[in-house]
Write a structure and sequence with these properties.
Blueprint: H1 15-31, H2 45-65, H3 69-74, H4 80-99, H5 108-129, H6 131-143, H7 151-161, H8 168-184, H9 194-206, H10 216-233, H11 259-269, H12 275-291, H13 299-310
Helix pairs in contact: 1-2, 1-4, 1-5, 2-6, 4-10, 5-10, 5-12, 7-8, 9-10, 12-13
Length: 313
């Protein structure tokens, strides 16, 4: 995609100007059709450099507009408005994708996997394109304890382990240990590679609440979870106050299931599905759920993991 002409307008002059300059690139990278769902379309190098320069200038102008240090502390951190715009953009994209989901449960998983792969490829490309936002805004927010894991999240657990006389270094180490415990829930093991650590942290970031500041790639994955996955995982509410009768012969009652749970059940119980194809679909769906921050305690993730481990439904 070539660099659009901005004429004499300065794309860094305001948020609306900057967003108007960024949006064609975002739509091309994230939304445009492509032959490969694993690779996002590219933009012209001059456009790429123009976006980097415009973003840098916008952040710089925001900082320079605030004359004193006290004013900077009082005002919303520079970059918040752009970050929130990007978050809303991904929410809209994810909702649009959900609207395109087939009504037939039997083809739902076959729709989700390429849809997610294409979305994730675009998100990673945008993450590189707007990496200055990560370096300038996200990193500072994490340093200010606004990231995926805050001190308040782990304070109670760590406080119990702190003893009188513990040095600041010991307390810091206990906080790090607690952080590692959280990452182990996402597949990190002691002695693992840096790639495994980065993946676990990305999953944890995607699983965080919406008010936490995370890198743009995790921001996109989090929105895919909240706007796409969670509606499909949602269980329909029972009408009225009637309780379901217990199942016969000691079996669990036939409770309603979410759309994705029904689709998984059909995939696993269908007799005319190729075993290798079934395993591929289950593997990719389990991976998508993990990457977007669906926790390992979720019943559907447990069912998928059980099938991959044992080969049984």
């Amino acid at each position: 995609m070539p660099n659009p002409s901005a004429g004499s307008a300065n794309p860094s002059a305001s948020l609306s100007s900057l967003w108007g300059y960024l949006l064609p690139a975002l739509n091309h990278i994230v939304r445009s059709p492509t032959h490969s769902t694993e690779k996002a379309p590219v933009i012209d190098i001059s456009y790429h450099m123009g976006i980097h320069t415009a973003t840098y200038n916008y952040f710089t102008m925001q900082v320079e507009a605030v004359s004193t240090h006290k004013e900077r502390e009082r005002l919303t951190p520079s970059g918040t408005d752009l970050y929130e715009h990007i978050d809303k953009y991904y929410a809209e994209v994810a909702r649009e994708l959900l609207l395109g989901a087939p009504e037939d449960d039997s083809s739902l998983i076959q729709f989700i996997i390429p849809c997610f792969n294409r979305y994730a490829a675009g998100a990673h490309s945008v993450n590189r394109l707007l990496n200055y936002v990560n370096r300038h805004y996200v990193k500072r927010a994490v340093d200010e304890d606004r990231g995926w894991l805050t001190l308040s999240d782990i304070f109670d657990a760590v406080a119990k382990a702190i003893q009188d006389g513990d040095t600041k270094e010991k307390i810091t180490n206990k906080l790090k240990e607690r952080r590692m415990e959280e990452l182990k829930k996402w597949g990190w093991d002691e002695g693992g590679t840096s790639e495994q650590f980065a993946r676990a942290e990305s999953c944890a970031e995607a699983a965080s609440p919406l008010d936490r500041v995370v890198p743009l790639s995790a921001l996109a994955l989090r929105r895919f979870r909240t706007e796409f996955m969670e509606p499909l995982l949602a269980v329909p509410k029972l009408k009225g106050n009637k309780r379901r009768k217990p199942g016969t012969h000691g079996k669990a009652p036939n409770l309603p299931k979410g759309r994705l749970a029904r689709a998984v059940r059909e995939l696993l119980e269908k007799q005319d599905v190729d075993v290798e194809e079934r395993r591929r679909l289950v593997t990719e769906l389990a991976n998508a759920m993990c990457i977007t921050g669906v926790r390992d305690g979720h019943p559907l993730r447990k069912r998928l993991d059980k099938y991959l481990l044992t080969g049984t439904v």
